[in-house]
């Protein structure tokens, strides 16, 4: 078993969860869920997602919807005005260029307005069940601290490194495990190293400094 497989096993025992609504349905809904989720908490993304799809069931109805109505339905998410515009544009593009079906190729997905590498990989992974890894800010931070990806690596390099280090059987799980671990323990600015379940695997040099600071804070609350 590789070091990273051991890490994933530990994380799986502790951070496995039911997936939020916006990433567990058909590819079109996963794609819209990804647009909604940027810089927004899962609970607010799910609220907006459910309100939106209660009224507009598919790409065709969203493409024809009034922008102001989309805005009203997705108000719980941050940047809802920009996201409403993106959703309408993406739905229209899918109708016009792909006959209403979300494409299965990464290159074609990235032609859709508002869809970058991360959302394309989310759709491939969660929508189509392909063994690809989507990299968000938590995934990137954790992968670098655990020595899976080099410190200066950008999106594509981080993605490749995680995919190479992850057995096929765990590819579908790795994104969500690292996201939840990143949110709960390995925050970008304030990691809780003193309670980290994978401390021994971490190569981040600041970890001891964090542990000492956290111990001191506990002694002198
Ligand atoms: S020891 Fe700290 S920095 Fe390293 S993985 Fe754990 S929480 Fe993240």
From TrEMBL:
Family annotation (InterPro entries): DNA_glycosylase, Endonuclease-III-like_CS2, Endouclease-III_FeS-bd_BS, HhH-GPD_domain, HhH_base_excis_C, HhH_motif
Keyword Metal-binding: yes
GO BP annotations, alphabetical order: base-excision repair, AP site formation
Coiled coil: none
Enzyme class: hydrolase
HhH-GPD domain segment(s): 36-184
Claim: Methyltransferase is one of the keywords in the record: no
Molecular function GO terms recorded: 4 iron, 4 sulfur cluster binding; DNA binding; G/T mismatch-specific thymine-DNA glycosylase activity; metal ion binding
EC number per UniProt: 3.2.2.29
Record field: catalytic activity: Hydrolyzes mismatched double-stranded DNA and polynucleotides, releasing free thymine
Named cofactor requirement(s): [4Fe-4S] cluster
Keywords: 4Fe-4S, DNA damage, DNA repair, Glycosidase, Hydrolase, Iron, Iron-sulfur, Metal-binding
Pfam families per UniProt: HHH, HhH-GPD
Lineage: superkingdom: Archaea
Family: Belongs to the Nth/MutY family.
Name listed for the protein in its UniProt record: thymine-DNA glycosylase
Organism, as annotated: Candidatus Marsarchaeota G1 archaeon BE_D
């Amino acid at each position: 078993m590789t070091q990273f497989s051991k890490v994933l096993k530990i994380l799986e025992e502790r951070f496995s969860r039911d997936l939020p609504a916006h990433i567990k349905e058909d590819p079109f809904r996963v794609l819209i869920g990804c647009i909604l989720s940027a810089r927004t908490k899962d609970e607010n993304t799910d609220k907006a997602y459910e309100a939106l799809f209660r009224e507009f069931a598919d790409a065709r109805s969203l493409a024809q919807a009034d922008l102001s109505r989309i805005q009203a339905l997705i108000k719980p998410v941050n940047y809802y005005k920009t996201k409403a515009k993106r959703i309408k544009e993406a739905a229209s593009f899918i109708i016009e260029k792909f006959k209403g079906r979300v494409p299965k190729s990464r290159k074609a997905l990235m032609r859709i307005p508002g869809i970058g590498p991360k959302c394309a990989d989310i759709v491939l992974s969660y929508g189509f069940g392909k063994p690809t890894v989507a990299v968000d800010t938590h995934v990137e931070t954790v992968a670098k601290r655990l020595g899976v990806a080099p410190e200066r690596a950008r999106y594509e390099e981080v993605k490749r490194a995680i995919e190479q280090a992850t057995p096929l059987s765990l590819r579908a799980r790795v994104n969500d495990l690292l996201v939840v671990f990143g949110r709960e323990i390995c925050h970008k600015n304030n990691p809780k190293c003193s309670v980290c379940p994978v401390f021994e695997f971490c190569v981040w040099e600041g970890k001891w400094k964090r542990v000492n600071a956290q111990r001191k804070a506990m002694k002198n609350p």
